[in-house]
Amino acid sequence: MILDATDKKILRLLQEDAHMTLKDIANKINLSLTPVHDRVKRLEKEGIIEKYVSVLNKKKLGINLTVYCQVTLIKQNYDISEGFNQSILNFPEVVECNFVSGSFDYMLKIVLPDMESYHHFHQKKLSILPEVSLINTFFVISEVKSTTVLPI
Amino acid sequence: MILDATDKKILRLLQEDAHMTLKDIANKINLSLTPVHDRVKRLEKEGIIEKYVSVLNKKKLGINLTVYCQVTLIKQNYDISEGFNQSILNFPEVVECNFVSGSFDYMLKIVLPDMESYHHFHQKKLSILPEVSLINTFFVISEVKSTTVLPI
DNA sequence: TAATATTCAGAAAAATTTACTGTAAAAATA
DNA sequence: TATTTTTACAGTAAATTTTTCTGAATATTA
């Protein structure tokens, strides 16, 4: 599937604000409702638009600590990795987990209320996983940028 | 502002799918339209709900490479940091940038079409910033988890 | 106990999305 | 080259959703 200039304009708008009405979009890109509607539906159907979500304010929810954890496993084989992955998927405080190249195995991003919660998470949830060998933590002091907008 | 159980239920639903109708939400949590509408509006007004966005599919947009960069600045003072921050905000491929504690200064997450694009980004955009002293890159081999859903 | 807020239900109005009809331009085919 | 087919779009009407309004029930406060 090829995205033409109009598709990209629509995607750029919807990435920033999914609550724009079709009419708003139509006006912004000088089209009528029909093509905008059809294109959005097509983009949804093709899976280019994966989902629509609400972005909540961490601070106002009392989530005041973000950390990156570099995790090394005891071994790199399939079963060990899969076991670890499954545990991570069940940890709601882990918002990001990627298997990476380099001197460790996984890069995690974790969001928590405070340091005490992190201590608990580290001791009672992450470090006790049988697959985990090493954890190296970096604490976020200040968030410069955080966006769901992809460059298109 | 205190969130009661009903607010949290609404937030949990909207975090996963912002295209649920008020009626859908009302049905799921056994309420009528009015309180759901009023609560959502209040959550928006208070800034608990920050925005609504569309999540796009990286792969289908030809974005096949994700990397983490650990960046060290030449100095840690305010002007140097601010200069760096401003540049980062203007780089659309940088989707995440956090000032962190530890053996380097910033943790970046960058999304790009391929290795060639990363080479270009590294050489022509990141490493030439006057504030940057050191860059350490980790390539994502496989994405295990990536969510905008906060634990509430 | 009365007055005031707060929360919610139901209904009507306004706005948006969806579906339908048709036209013009571009592309494909004979 | 002419004809058919496809594609993209405009306009309108129906269906759905959001928004607004009215009022009742419960809890809070004076």
Q: In words, what does this structure look like?
A:
Chains A, B: One of its GO terms (cellular component) is cytosol. Chains A, B: Keywords: DNA-binding, Transcription, Transcription regulation. Chains A, B: GO terms for molecular function: sequence-specific DNA binding. 2 copies of one chain form a homodimer. With 152 residues, chain A is an alpha+beta fold. Chain A folds into 2 domains: 3-44, Winged helix-like DNA-binding domain superfamily/Winged helix DNA-binding domain (Arc Repressor Mutant, subunit A), CATH 1.10.10.10; 56-137, Alpha-Beta Plaits (2-Layer Sandwich). In chain A, 37% of the residues lie in helices and 30% in strands. Chain A contains 5 helices and 5 strands. Chain A has helices spanning 5-16, 22-28, 33-45, 78-89, 115-126; strands at residues 49-56, 65-73, 94-100, 106-112, 132-146. A 4-stranded antiparallel beta sheet of chain A has the order 3-4-2-5. In chain A, β3 (94-100) and β4 (106-112) form a beta hairpin. In chain A, α2 crosses α3. The radius of gyration of chain A is 20 Å and the shape is elongated. Chains A and B meet through α1, β1, α4, β3 and β4 of A and α1, β1, α4, β3 and β4 of B. The first copy, chain A, binds a DNA duplex (30 and 30 nucleotides) through residues 21-23, 31-35, 37-38, 41.
